[in-house]
Design brief:
Helix content: 40-55%
Strand content: 5-15%
Shape: globular
Order of helices and strands: EHEEEEHHHHHHHHHHHHHHH
Strand order of the largest sheet: 1-5-4-3-2
Largest sheet: 5 strands, antiparallel
Distance between the termini: 49 Å
DNA sequence: AGCCAGGTCTGCG
DNA sequence: CGCAGACATGGC
């Protein structure tokens, strides 16, 4: 844990041709340290992030001119590995165009509902507050232009988001790290690959709870790993299933409900029509729409999912990640319920 | 100290 | 369906 050594491994950056250059506007904080992946650690002293992709420790660093690049830390960059990084960072996709598309979709969605709610009786009863992070939508969204969706392996995503339920991001990262070091193949003195289903299937609930600190989720992960390991041939081919069928199968897994299933579809099977709705995305979306607060009737998540599918279509997943990051950075931690009355005074 | 967390599961009307 | 509680753990 605590590296007392003054300078652990000050590797000189590899020659440029031995790295994978990332797009000019790449934003590592949003992409690597947001809510989609849990294995990236930001260096406190340098513009560098270290993570694990497959069986490799990977660094993401910045050149003096500001560009970002990725390279494997402990081995040369083979053609196969270059392709793996290219795939992980989703470098075939044009996120600049996607950003412009999202700006357009979100703006028109906001305007549509603004007009809708202006005619609503709830609006005149309780007008929305003028101060909202969505007041200047274009400026808000421009801060997110470097956010990308990573193409992660599906089993790691399954485990990560079962762990994520009712949990904090820092603790999710810690748990995923312990699970990797405990059951994954070591690939460096300090790092390990994420365990295969077979490897994690050897875990006992007791170990999961008391070593990996997963709490009451021990039985979910225990049954999940054993189930996946036992039906591995099926899940290896699951990537070719249509999204509704795949969603149906995911919902049969222990610890996987509607929200986690959408996360696995999006981050693990790269289905961009998936739209996970958690408390943050829900709050951000309602605020964007200008939805009147209670006592006005509130929409169900099922309704919001249909709304998002209609508004964003094949970009729903990226729109969701935008909303999540907006909520995380611009909304207060908890939406206070009704003020009710002043707190009781101690006499 | 107490509340909350990228929810899910269970059991009830 | 919709709703209420429980649920381990640890950060803030």
């Amino acid at each position: 844990m605590s590296s007392a050594a003054p300078n652990p491994q000050r590797l000189t950056p590899p020659a440029l041709q031995n790295t994978v250059p990332l797009p000019a506007n790449f934003n590592p904080d949003l992409t690597l340290c947001g809510g989609q992946a849990f294995r990236w650690v930001k260096s406190p002293t340098q513009p560098t992030y270290q993570g694990v992709i497959g069986e490799q420790v990977v660094n993401v660093s910045q050149t003096s001119s500001g560009g970002w690049y990725a390279y494997p830390l402990t081995c040369p960059l083979t053609a196969t590995l270059r392709q793996q990084l290219w795939d992980y960072f989703d470098l075939d996709r044009d996120y600049v165009s996607l950003h412009h598309l999202l700006v357009e979709r979100l703006t028109s969605l906001q305007e549509h509902y603004r007009q809708h709610f202006q005619r609503s009786p709830w609006y005149t009863l309780q007008p929305p507050p003028p101060t909202s992070p969505f007041a200047n939508l274009f400026t808000l969204l421009s801060q997110l232009a470097g956010l990308r969706l990573l193409r992660q392996p599906w089993f790691e995503v399954m485990v990560s988001f079962v762990v994520s339920a009712n949990n904090h991001l820092p603790r999710i990262r810690q748990i995923i790290s312990i699970i990797s070091r405990t059951f994954g193949q070591p690939i460096s003195p300090t790092a390990a690959a994420f365990p295969t289903p077979a490897a994690l299937a050897t875990a006992t609930p007791t170990t999961l709870r008391h070593v990996c600190r997963v709490g009451y989720r021990d039985r979910y992960l225990y049954h999940l790993a054993r189930h996946i390991a036992r039906h591995l041939p099926f899940w290896e081919t699951a990537a070719s299933l249509p999204t509704p069928a795949l969603r149906h199968h995911l919902l049969t897994l222990p610890g996987v409900g509607p929200k986690v299933a959408e996360c696995i579809l999006l981050f693990g099977f790269h289905r961009w029509e998936a739209f996970p709705i958690d408390v943050w995305v829900r709050r951000a979306l309602l605020l964007l729409l200008g939805w009147p607060p209670p006592p006005a009737p509130q929409p169900t998540n099922r309704y919001l999912a249909a709304l998002a599918a209609d508004a964003f279509g094949p970009c729903a997943g990226l729109a969701q990640q935008y909303l999540f990051e907006i909520a995380r950075h611009h909304l207060p931690p908890k939406q206070k319920t009704s003020p009710k009355s002043s707190p009781p005074l101690k006499s």
